[in-house]
Design goal:
The chain has 83 residues and is mainly alpha-helical. It is 63% helix and 6% strand. The protein has a two-stranded antiparallel ribbon with strand order 1-2.
């Protein structure tokens, strides 16, 4: 089924780009131009991307969780200087 009529992009192609790591409509657009002409397919692309897990998004979320636990470098330096 076609998702983007302007560029002839199918749902399968969008899923393949998502499997390869494109997690947002903008990333899909950079791979195949879908959503860059009239824009009527952007919501459909968002729906397709929302159905599956995005490995890159999961890694970013894990990285953010780890970063939140790590002390800030400036704080660490000032604590070391004070000691």
């Amino acid at each position: 089924m076609y998702v983007c009529s302007c560029f002839g992009i199918t749902e399968q192609q969008v899923k393949e780009h998502a499997d390869a790591g494109a997690c947002t409509p903008r990333q899909i657009a950079s791979k195949c131009k879908a959503g860059t002409d009239c824009g009527s397919c952007v919501r459909r692309i968002q729906a397709i991307l929302g159905r599956g897990a995005c490995p890159r998004r999961e890694l970013v979320e894990q990285g953010n969780a780890v970063a939140a636990l790590a002390p800030e470098p400036a704080l660490t330096e000032s604590l070391e200087e004070a000691a």
